[in-house]
Amino acid sequence: MNLKPFALLALSLVFCVVTSSSVLAQPTDTTQTRDSHLSENQVKNLFAFARVYGFVKYFYPLQKKDKISWNYIAAHGSQRVLNAASEEALAEALRAVFSPIAPLLNIHSAYDGIGISTAGQESSNHYYYNLHQGLGQDKGDLPILTRKISELYKSRIMDVDHKTYLDLLAKDRILSVDSLYSVPLTDKLYCSLPLVLTESNYKSNQAHRHFSQKYQLNLDRHEDRLATVIIFWNVFQHFHPYLDNAAAWDSVFVQTVQQLSPSMTRADFMRVARNLTTSLNDGHAYLASTNSTGIYSRPSPPILQTAWVENKLVVSKVNIENTSLLPGDIVQKVGAQEAAGLLDYTKSFLSHANSNNGNLLAAQSALGWLSTTTDTITMALIDSSGNAKNVVLNGQGYQFKVPTPVAAIRTLEGGIYYINTSAVSAKDIKENLPALQQAKGIVFDMRGRPSSSFLRGVLPYLIDKEVDTGNWSIPHYTFPDQKNVHFVPTSKWSIKPNGNYISVKKAFLIGHNTQSYGETCAELVEHYKIGTMFGCVTAGTNGNINFSGAGQLQAVWTGMRVQNRDGSPYHGVGVQPDISVQPNLKDIQLGKDTQLEAAVKFLQESR
User: Fold this and answer.
1) What separation in angstroms does the CA of 457 have from each of 173, 244, 443, 463?
2) What distance in Å separates the CA atoms of residue 48 and residue 254, rounded to the nearest whole number?
3) What would the pLDDT profile of 249-292 be if each residue is shown by its tens digit?
4) Which of 297, 338, 520, 564 shows the smallest number of beta carbons within 10 Å?
5) Given this model, what pLDDT does residue 237 score?
6) Higher pLDDT, 301 or 274
7) CB atoms within 10 A of CB 86
8) pLDDT at 112
9) How does DSSP assign 67-128, residue by residue?
């Protein structure tokens, strides 16, 4: 879903490759020696540093903060505190790093609570605070295209007069200028800082002049890997609108840095670092390398496609010639790896909002690496007759089948029409309008991403009154740790009928790959009762994505809050089918689409 769908859908579509295709290399042994890992005290010190870093970077009012090299501060500052042997030494190291940037910040051992300690500031004609509409910082390391897609989100320093300041204070949008935001860092150590500065304190701070040195994070350096985790952990700590869905977020930081070691490879680091996004339970969330344009390279064609059917990893489609692999074969082993272990391994790298979809997503991604491996792989399978068989895939010495073009509209038995919403256009509907208006019924397949023209071009044929989209809002952050978040509703999309209403019975197929813009379309269908929904629950992941960059990595996540129209949670819930239909093994072996056949039968029997 995008607020400017018809301008940006073509741009954002390329990023859905991240969550819908295989992103994993062949499993490897990543065991490290314990003495190469951080000690418990070092992890504690890093966590304290990470907390203060996020407070200062995002919520201490600073002039020209985009000129400050936050990558440098993350890398070198964290090393300065890493080996502090006591609470006193840690406090001293934290002050040494952050006092030159945020002089009114205090590291201390007495917790006074939020809004109790005074900041020692007098009244002023102007007041300055951070306003994050989503998150607009952290875009400097992003390629042009990803910056473009995330332009919706803004971060800026607000300059308000005394009257506006008092109004914001009364609405709990800001913290009083004479108060401090105070939180614990360790069992004995606390951090306090002002979130609003007077004009004199704001304008006298010239930190941007002294901390502007360019610094490129290098993932071959251990200290830069630690800095990268600190940076991205803070992004989600303060700006992920569904962080409540991520269990024990502090522990995620600890568990992630505990697995890092100087001896690990870059690939091993990426596998560990993705724990941050996997733990978010957000179908958009992903951590990836960037390139010059920001466009992810499209994956190699898969040798075969697999699915999770009847609690088994099943071959659903074979894309190569001259092989004994067949749809419906049950995967037992790939090399020495049991299918269940491979599925769990794959699932550990995938973020998904709806837990019911975890195995479904993992199954379709589990064997994508077969297309790029140069090794000889033996697969152990059970065929449709229950017989065991082995298939050897020899490096890349296989011939891909010529892909069959997918028709946007085709006729089925009994006067039923099938429309592939991923390929259909308004022109297709117009050219087939007389036939569609006389059809027994129409099945709309929304199990993939609908075309960008679906809402404006196709939906007007399916409605006889104006409809609009649901409950979307952009979070406005002025406090750390997602305190006192103010959600501002976004404008709705309105779609009007075009006078060529297709009044026949309609069925819509949905599933775990119905996500984001696809869920916007599905929610409209469901809310306005445009047709009957068949299949499985959708991904429960909607709202514009946001991007944050650090060195050669970029993080993707859902930046917007989407709720059901009654205000109840949508994230992780999704659109439920009216009639639940799960694929079955027998139909796959016979080349049948279980969900499509159920929808066709429903329409044929409808009066």
Assistant:
1) 41, 37, 17, 12
2) 11
3) 999 999 999 999 999 999 999 999 999 999 999 999 999 888 76
4) 297
5) 98
6) 274
7) 10
8) 46
9) GS-HHHIIIIIHHHHHT--SHHHHHHHHHHHHTTT-TT-EEES----TTTS-------SEEE
- What is the Cα–Cα distance from 55 to 482, expressed in whole angstroms? 12
DSSP code, position 456: I
CATH number of 304-394: 2.30.42.10
Rounded to an integer, the average pLDDT of 127-154 is 92
CA angle 56, 171, 102 (to 5 degrees): 15
> Measured at the alpha carbon of residue 99, what is the angle toward residues 95 and 102, in degrees to the nearest 5?
135
One-letter identity of residue 498: N
Mean pLDDT of 538-551: 95
Cβ burial 596-607 (10 Å sphere, 16+ → b, else e): bebbbebbeeee
Domain assignments of the chain as residue spans, ordered by start: 5-289, 304-394, 409-605
Query: Per-residue pLDDT tens for 448-489?
Result: 999 999 999 999 999 999 999 989 999 999 999 999 999 999
Picking from 257-261, 295-299, 436-440, 547-551, which range would have the lowest pLDDT averaged per residue? 295-299
Q: What are phi and psi of 44, to 5 degrees?
A: -60, -45
One-letter amino acid identity for 262? P
Instruction: Tell whether the model's pLDDT for residue 9 goes beyond 70.
Output: no
How far is 128 from 197, CA to CA, in rounded Å?
5
* Sign of the dihedral through C-alpha 241, 244, 249, 250: positive
Compute CA 494 distance to the chain's CA centroid, rounded to the nearest angstrom.
26
Q: How many CA atoms lie within 13 A of 166 on its CB side?
A: 5
Residue 524 has pLDDT above 70, yes or no: yes
Beta partners for residue 108, in sequence order: 190
Contact criterion met (CB below 8 Å) for 152 and 544: yes
Return the H-helix or E-strand segment holding 520: helix 517-527
Tokens linked to 533 = 């929904």
d(CA 316, CA 300): 18
Structure tokens at 189: 């150590």
Judge if 304-394 and 409-605 fold alike in CATH terms.
no
Q: Which CATH number fits domain 409-605: 3.90.226.10, 3.40.50.300, 3.40.50.150, 2.130.10.120?
A: 3.90.226.10
- Helix, strand, coil distribution of the chain in percent, nearest 5: 35, 20, 45
Q: Which residues pair with 390 in a beta bridge?
A: 380
Query: What band does 293 get if pLDDT is binned at 50, 70 and 90?
Result: low
